[in-house]
Amino acid sequence: MVSLFILRPLRVSLPRCGSQQIRQSAAKAAGARRSFSSYLVTPQELADALKKAPPSPISSEPRVIPLCASWFLPNDPEGRTGIDVFREKRIPKARFFDLDKVIDKHSEYPHMLPNPKSFAAAMSELGIRHEDTVVVYDSKELGIFSAPRVGWTLKTFGHPRVHILNNFRLWVEQGLPTESGNVWTVECGTYPIPEMDESKVAHFEDVREVALDYNKEGAEGVQILDARSYGRWAGKDPEPRPGLSSGHMPGSINIPFDAVLDPQTKAFLPVDKLKQVFKEKGVDPTKPIISSCGTGVTACVLETALNEAQYGSPETRKVYDGSWTEWAQRVKPSDSLIRTVEQQSE
């Protein structure tokens, strides 16, 4: 009888991971038998790496762990869920990262980053070690959607070797191995409690200051990118979450996340085309960039595209964790910080 692996609270004592431990773990991981040349990994590169460093629980060497991060919007027309498509078809020995559970459970906003202890507990239950190479991937249905958010989360908590598969749809089309059905419970580990890299995260107060300074003389010129659809950004289409106003932040640049993906394969575009997308949208690579979306998920698609294109400095790029769901509920009507295209044309 097989049992389905689902995240549940861990009651274990987790060690804290200080800067020296992180450096030692990173150094060990650097000696892994397989290293990828880019943050984005091709299906064949991952398949080859899994042959050389499989996710075996008995191996003491750094392993390659495929991590499924499939997730669908709450108003998905087919009612799909991440765990359903994970059961249906996945990379052999993959683990499932539940984007609706590994969050700040005390926040009223969805998908906010968990605290370091909760993150370590989730990684421990997934059986992932600090020295493992983790390759995050999406569903074949969407191609690229939520995996970049999970990859960004791992990087924000200092996991030394994180990559994104580009992508599982191509993996399936190329006839690489898959499995289906329920999965065996993985052997839990003890992941050290990390420190969060706050430099990667934009908070409500940060973004509000940028919005209030928009078009003011002497402002820093921070750019806000919005990965939602044009209709939601323009204020013409409803948000997928009932009761939430649509529209956009003053001065934000609308780049729907699928603009950086190939229309057929839903994989990331080549570097030259990514640069062209950002240039045509008027994004200045010399100025700070904050990526946003509905709940901080597809904002990470833009951040990953910026990273791949080396567009903008990594030190001045952030992701707005709460994104539009937090923004639309927290701004005051008197601030006039929710704009629509109709208002701009008046």
TrEMBL record:
Residues 77-180, 218-336 form the Rhodanese domain. InterPro entries: Rhodanese-like_dom, Rhodanese-like_dom_sf, TST/MPST-like. Keywords: Repeat, Transferase. Transmembrane segments: none annotated. GO terms for molecular function: thiosulfate-cyanide sulfurtransferase activity. The keyword Transferase applies. One of its GO terms (cellular component) is mitochondrion. It holds the Pfam family Rhodanese. PANTHER family: SULFURTRANSFERASE, THIOSULFATE SULFERTANSFERASE. This is Rhodanese-like domain-containing protein. It comes from Apiosordaria backusii.
